[in-house]
Amino acid sequence: MFKSKKIIKEKILKIINPINFISEETVDIIMDFSQMEKISAKTIFISKGKQNSKEYFILNGICRSLLYSPKGEDITLSFYVENSIIPPCMTRTINGFSNQNFQALTDLTLVSISQNKFLELINKYEKLSVFANKSIENELTNKIEKEEFLIGLTAKEKLTEFRKKYKNLENLIPHNIIASYFGITNVSFSRIRKGTLKS
Questions:
Q1: Is 122 in the same domain as 45?
Q2: What is the biggest distance separating any 2 CA atoms in the chain, rounded to whole angstroms?
Q3: What pLDDT digit, counting tens, does each position of 67-92 carry?
Protein backbone atom coordinates (compact mmCIF):
# COMPACT_ATOMS: atom_id res chain seq x y z
CA MET A 1 0.00 0.00 0.00
CA PHE A 2 1.19 3.52 -0.83
CA LYS A 3 4.26 2.36 -2.70
CA SER A 4 4.02 5.45 -4.90
CA LYS A 5 5.50 8.68 -3.53
CA LYS A 6 2.94 10.52 -5.63
CA ILE A 7 0.07 8.88 -3.71
CA ILE A 8 1.71 9.68 -0.36
CA LYS A 9 2.19 13.30 -1.45
CA GLU A 10 -1.44 13.56 -2.54
CA LYS A 11 -2.62 12.25 0.81
CA ILE A 12 -0.44 14.66 2.79
CA LEU A 13 -1.73 17.53 0.67
CA LYS A 14 -5.27 16.32 1.36
CA ILE A 15 -4.53 16.54 5.08
CA ILE A 16 -2.78 19.93 5.10
CA ASN A 17 -4.53 21.96 2.42
CA PRO A 18 -8.01 22.13 4.03
CA ILE A 19 -6.27 23.82 6.99
CA ASN A 20 -3.83 25.94 5.01
CA PHE A 21 -2.69 25.58 1.40
CA ILE A 22 0.95 24.63 0.83
CA SER A 23 2.84 23.80 -2.33
CA GLU A 24 3.79 20.35 -3.56
CA GLU A 25 7.42 21.42 -3.23
CA THR A 26 6.95 21.96 0.50
CA VAL A 27 5.42 18.50 0.85
CA ASP A 28 8.42 17.06 -1.00
CA ILE A 29 10.66 18.61 1.67
CA ILE A 30 8.50 17.18 4.47
CA MET A 31 8.72 13.76 2.86
CA ASP A 32 12.51 14.00 2.61
CA PHE A 33 12.70 14.05 6.41
CA SER A 34 9.79 11.69 7.11
CA GLN A 35 9.32 7.96 7.44
CA MET A 36 6.34 5.68 6.96
CA GLU A 37 5.12 3.67 9.93
CA LYS A 38 2.71 0.74 9.74
CA ILE A 39 0.97 -0.11 13.00
CA SER A 40 -1.08 -3.26 13.55
CA ALA A 41 -4.63 -2.99 14.92
CA LYS A 42 -4.89 -2.89 18.75
CA THR A 43 -1.27 -1.73 19.16
CA ILE A 44 -0.51 1.07 21.62
CA PHE A 45 2.03 3.03 19.60
CA ILE A 46 2.33 6.06 21.89
CA SER A 47 2.38 5.32 25.62
CA LYS A 48 1.68 7.72 28.46
CA GLY A 49 4.80 8.56 30.41
CA LYS A 50 7.16 7.58 27.61
CA GLN A 51 9.13 9.94 25.41
CA ASN A 52 7.64 10.88 22.07
CA SER A 53 8.91 13.65 19.82
CA LYS A 54 7.19 13.02 16.48
CA GLU A 55 4.48 14.65 14.42
CA TYR A 56 2.15 12.28 12.58
CA PHE A 57 -0.01 12.30 9.43
CA ILE A 58 -2.61 9.53 9.21
CA LEU A 59 -2.63 8.16 5.67
CA ASN A 60 -4.91 5.22 6.37
CA GLY A 61 -6.76 3.69 9.31
CA ILE A 62 -8.31 4.74 12.62
CA CYS A 63 -6.77 5.34 16.02
CA ARG A 64 -7.80 6.76 19.37
CA SER A 65 -6.29 8.55 22.34
CA LEU A 66 -7.05 7.06 25.75
CA LEU A 67 -6.26 7.04 29.43
CA TYR A 68 -6.76 4.39 32.10
CA SER A 69 -8.91 4.87 35.19
CA PRO A 70 -7.59 3.87 38.66
CA LYS A 71 -9.54 0.62 38.17
CA GLY A 72 -7.72 -0.07 34.90
CA GLU A 73 -10.67 0.72 32.65
CA ASP A 74 -9.75 2.48 29.44
CA ILE A 75 -11.37 5.82 28.70
CA THR A 76 -11.43 6.99 25.09
CA LEU A 77 -10.61 10.68 24.72
CA SER A 78 -10.74 11.19 20.94
CA PHE A 79 -10.75 9.43 17.59
CA TYR A 80 -8.46 10.16 14.64
CA VAL A 81 -9.23 8.93 11.14
CA GLU A 82 -7.74 8.68 7.67
CA ASN A 83 -6.54 11.94 6.10
CA SER A 84 -6.04 13.76 9.38
CA ILE A 85 -3.26 14.31 11.90
CA ILE A 86 -2.53 13.05 15.37
CA PRO A 87 -2.55 16.13 17.64
CA PRO A 88 0.63 18.22 17.56
CA CYS A 89 3.38 17.04 19.86
CA MET A 90 3.21 20.12 22.09
CA THR A 91 -0.47 19.43 22.90
CA ARG A 92 0.05 15.77 23.88
CA THR A 93 3.40 15.83 25.69
CA ILE A 94 4.82 17.42 28.82
CA ASN A 95 8.59 17.96 28.74
CA GLY A 96 8.76 15.48 25.86
CA PHE A 97 6.80 12.73 27.64
CA SER A 98 3.39 11.68 26.37
CA ASN A 99 0.43 12.63 28.58
CA GLN A 100 -1.88 10.04 27.01
CA ASN A 101 -1.89 6.76 25.10
CA PHE A 102 -2.62 6.29 21.41
CA GLN A 103 -3.91 2.98 20.06
CA ALA A 104 -4.50 1.76 16.51
CA LEU A 105 -8.10 0.56 16.20
CA THR A 106 -7.49 -0.74 12.68
CA ASP A 107 -4.26 -1.34 10.81
CA LEU A 108 -2.74 2.12 10.60
CA THR A 109 -0.41 3.77 8.09
CA LEU A 110 1.34 6.91 9.30
CA VAL A 111 3.92 9.32 8.02
CA SER A 112 6.01 10.63 10.91
CA ILE A 113 8.60 13.38 11.19
CA SER A 114 10.66 14.40 14.21
CA GLN A 115 9.32 17.38 16.10
CA ASN A 116 12.66 19.20 15.90
CA LYS A 117 12.86 18.85 12.13
CA PHE A 118 9.23 19.90 11.75
CA LEU A 119 9.92 23.00 13.85
CA GLU A 120 12.82 23.83 11.55
CA LEU A 121 10.52 23.60 8.53
CA ILE A 122 7.83 25.66 10.27
CA ASN A 123 10.36 28.43 10.90
CA LYS A 124 11.42 28.31 7.27
CA TYR A 125 8.04 28.05 5.51
CA GLU A 126 5.37 30.53 6.56
CA LYS A 127 2.41 28.57 5.16
CA LEU A 128 3.52 25.48 7.03
CA SER A 129 3.75 27.61 10.17
CA VAL A 130 0.14 28.71 9.67
CA PHE A 131 -0.90 25.06 9.30
CA ALA A 132 0.90 24.13 12.52
CA ASN A 133 -0.66 26.99 14.50
CA LYS A 134 -4.15 26.23 13.21
CA SER A 135 -3.67 22.55 14.07
CA ILE A 136 -2.91 23.52 17.66
CA GLU A 137 -5.96 25.81 17.73
CA ASN A 138 -8.12 23.02 16.32
CA GLU A 139 -6.96 20.59 18.99
CA LEU A 140 -7.77 23.05 21.77
CA THR A 141 -11.20 23.64 20.20
CA ASN A 142 -11.77 19.88 20.01
CA LYS A 143 -11.03 19.53 23.73
CA ILE A 144 -13.57 22.23 24.59
CA GLU A 145 -16.16 20.63 22.30
CA LYS A 146 -15.55 17.25 23.97
CA GLU A 147 -16.23 18.77 27.40
CA GLU A 148 -19.49 20.25 26.09
CA PHE A 149 -20.30 16.88 24.48
CA LEU A 150 -19.89 15.03 27.77
CA ILE A 151 -21.67 17.56 29.98
CA GLY A 152 -24.29 19.20 27.79
CA LEU A 153 -25.86 16.33 25.83
CA THR A 154 -28.04 13.36 26.63
CA ALA A 155 -26.75 9.94 25.62
CA LYS A 156 -29.09 9.88 22.62
CA GLU A 157 -27.91 13.35 21.53
CA LYS A 158 -24.31 12.20 21.90
CA LEU A 159 -24.93 9.36 19.48
CA THR A 160 -26.54 11.74 16.97
CA GLU A 161 -23.57 14.13 17.13
CA PHE A 162 -21.08 11.26 17.01
CA ARG A 163 -22.66 9.96 13.81
CA LYS A 164 -22.43 13.41 12.25
CA LYS A 165 -18.79 13.91 13.18
CA TYR A 166 -17.54 10.38 12.53
CA LYS A 167 -19.55 9.04 9.62
CA ASN A 168 -19.66 5.21 9.55
CA LEU A 169 -17.12 4.89 12.39
CA GLU A 170 -19.81 3.17 14.44
CA ASN A 171 -19.65 0.26 11.98
CA LEU A 172 -15.86 0.01 11.94
CA ILE A 173 -14.76 -0.17 15.57
CA PRO A 174 -15.90 -2.03 18.73
CA HIS A 175 -18.91 -0.44 20.40
CA ASN A 176 -17.42 -0.68 23.89
CA ILE A 177 -14.77 1.81 22.76
CA ILE A 178 -17.44 4.26 21.61
CA ALA A 179 -19.26 3.75 24.92
CA SER A 180 -16.10 4.72 26.79
CA TYR A 181 -15.91 7.89 24.66
CA PHE A 182 -19.50 8.70 25.71
CA GLY A 183 -18.73 7.99 29.35
CA ILE A 184 -21.37 5.25 29.59
CA THR A 185 -21.43 1.46 29.83
CA ASN A 186 -21.49 -0.78 26.78
CA VAL A 187 -24.94 -2.04 27.84
CA SER A 188 -26.29 1.53 27.93
CA PHE A 189 -24.77 2.23 24.54
CA SER A 190 -26.45 -0.85 23.06
CA ARG A 191 -29.81 0.29 24.40
CA ILE A 192 -29.38 3.75 22.87
CA ARG A 193 -28.44 2.26 19.51
CA LYS A 194 -31.49 0.01 19.54
CA GLY A 195 -33.69 2.97 20.38
CA THR A 196 -32.35 5.12 17.57
CA LEU A 197 -32.52 2.29 15.03
CA LYS A 198 -36.21 1.74 15.86
CA SER A 199 -37.12 5.42 15.71
A1: yes
A2: 55
A3: 999 999 999 999 999 999 999 999 99
Contacts of 189 (CB under 8 A, 6+ apart): 155, 159, 175, 176, 178, 179, 182
Q: Determine the structural domain holding residue 170 and report its residue range.
A: 153-199
One domain for residues 119 and 157: no
Strands 44-46 and 84-85: unpaired
- Does the pTM surpass 0.70? The reply is yes
CA atoms of 138 and 104, how far apart (whole Å): 22
Name the band, by pLDDT with cuts 50, 70 and 90, for residue 2. very low
State the Cα–Cα distance between residues 111 and 113, nearest whole angstrom.
Answer: 7
Q: Are residues 157 and 129 in the same domain?
A: no
The tens digit of pLDDT for each residue in 142-170 reads 999 999 999 999 999 999 999 999 989 99
* Amino acid symbol at 115: Q
